[in-house]
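FAQ
Q: What does a multi-component entry look like?
A: The components come first, one per line:
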Amino acid sequence: MIPVEEARARVLAALSPLGAETIALPEGFGRVLAAPIIARLTQPPADLSAMDGYALRAADAVLGARLKIIGAAPAGHPFGGTIGPGQAVRLFTGSVLPAGADTVLLQEDATLNADVLTVNEAVPPGKHIRRAGQDFAAGDVLIAPGRRLTTRDIGLAAAGNHAWLAVHRRPRVAILATGDEISLPGAPIAPGGIVSSNAHALAAFVTAAGGIPTILPIAADDLGAIAAGADAAQGADLLVTTGGASVGDHDLVAAGLQARGLALDFWKIAMRPGKPLMFGALGALPLLGLPGNPVSALVCAILFLRPAIELLSGLPGDPPALHHAILGAAMKPNDQREDYVRARLQNGVATPFPMQDSGMLRTLAQAQCLIRRPAFQEALEAGAAVEIVLLNEY
Amino acid sequence: MIPVEEARARVLAALSPLGAETIALPEGFGRVLAAPIIARLTQPPADLSAMDGYALRAADAVLGARLKIIGAAPAGHPFGGTIGPGQAVRLFTGSVLPAGADTVLLQEDATLNADVLTVNEAVPPGKHIRRAGQDFAAGDVLIAPGRRLTTRDIGLAAAGNHAWLAVHRRPRVAILATGDEISLPGAPIAPGGIVSSNAHALAAFVTAAGGIPTILPIAADDLGAIAAGADAAQGADLLVTTGGASVGDHDLVAAGLQARGLALDFWKIAMRPGKPLMFGALGALPLLGLPGNPVSALVCAILFLRPAIELLSGLPGDPPALHHAILGAAMKPNDQREDYVRARLQNGVATPFPMQDSGMLRTLAQAQCLIRRPAFQEALEAGAAVEIVLLNEY
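Then the predicted structure of the entire assembly, as tokens:
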């Protein structure tokens, strides 16, 4: 059994960011940038008015002054002339400041009568002007590579005049659920059998993490079926199996994959739920073998699969963020396995569910957090400080 | 000018959750459930082994006992007989517990020699057994309507034997950017013109909030073009415009929409950035008019558009969550407008960007949070407690 942190480091060390592809700007939300976005123009391109009002010379903008309107400059239609003494030009938010003007009088601070403007409020130079380049200048790096693009980034890339983006390819993740006892929802169920939840939950997980899932047909507990599943995963960037990573006679995934040249890195980690976690490779195809119990599979996905998908996507592959909470009920001492305990979270108080069997998916769905307990942690009283992983993003 | 909270309440009061549609389970991640998911079976369906080992009678599970192996029960292949005194059956994680057995001996606590099992550790009754119905029973409500489905929920719905889900339809949001001065990225730019960022940023925003965006062609500052844009939005659940909600001569959206029967609810709110926010309806089509400045448009989207999309999606339409932070630099007293100030956030300290012009999109992209300042808030010293909206999910 190796510790969680070492296992994650070994998984990440075996992976590299995928190459780039060109996509259209509207497809960019949530993708990871592979090349810097450099401003192709200066924004604003010229000094612009920040308000609706009048362009004029500050020297003329004295209380009671009467100025002659010599034109208008709607946004997108700059005024071609130059403003002289005693003159003003009507403008609007986003209008280019005409030559000769050095300030903007708000429309609510003026009275217009035919083409004569009366100044009702003095204005110093430079008011209500957005200076050229105030937001950015051509050549500026607007967004650095390695960032997952937000809605705001999409706007900024557009403003910098980028219709196309270079992003890391989405990781293709093949999901192979194994077991004679499992059926797909709605399909006939064998005596004593159950409905498979892992494949679809993991497919949603892969999607949420930014990958593209492929759910392979369920493989029976049979060496040939498992080897055939591995063949079907060729072309993927990562193969994820569930079940069969334990030590029982009928845990056959490793054996089945050995027929396809499995190079096993490790297959047992010091955590609960999820001891039988397997990692290795089939040639160039990395393999992450998750436990078959649905809670173990999803908790291991949070700790290992998401960092793996993120690293393939061009991100650092950070472990899940740990937050602080207060324990809501006493807990016994922990053993040699790092423990992730399903809990409710209310007002900063994390209270474990009384039963933690790794087959109980409902408590995982209802939990707001996992309490992380280091190996050999002593008994805890209610009120103790604990670290938690928030589940709302999973 | 009406307060932010009142404006949001009026927007939400005008909207209703959209109807349901049936989708396949793998499409369910992130969708909002419209009907309860009720367990169609009991899970586990029978008493199952939680480990790899041997089923036996606890009365026989005494140190040194030698038992006869009378069969095996791989997961998915229950043992048909009954275990009698002095007998045991090989089983695995997920195997059905055979009749006659009342406990499970771990395989590592036993020695097998041909068909004779030696017990190396005494076991009390009921060990390592997952009881029938321990996770849920047929008829249980597994997931209540009105929840945005997580990866865990998808697994739980599968385990409950649901291949199809009833979810609220995704809101279709038509986006109409207006202005003579704006061009699409890569297209020719008029003198003094800028590249449009709002439409694509808002499309990403709509996607992130769970809606389906349609970007309409940019409408010129022309009554007919704006009315035609409104016509193109028919069939949408919400029309979002940007620009033209202010008071200048060239702010024509309201005028253009009046030709299509605009019923205006309000068009001015007491907030910064974003005073000219418009809300109304074109017949049955609700209309949210966002300001044209890109920062104002996105901040108003956070405060109004996301709650609107969420309400249409079957969620409550909550305002963005407020978190606590420490102010990193002094701030002047606030005026009558509720203020949302772009800031960096490091170790719980929120430091405003020195310039807050609502044309500066780059600072919005770089900000980690918005500091929310109530109207008429007094001056604040560095170190003061402030409320923030986190930007990482936008």
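Q: Is there any commentary attached?
A: Sometimes. For this entry: Chain A has four domains: 4-17+170-312, 21-43+137-168, 48-130, 323-390.
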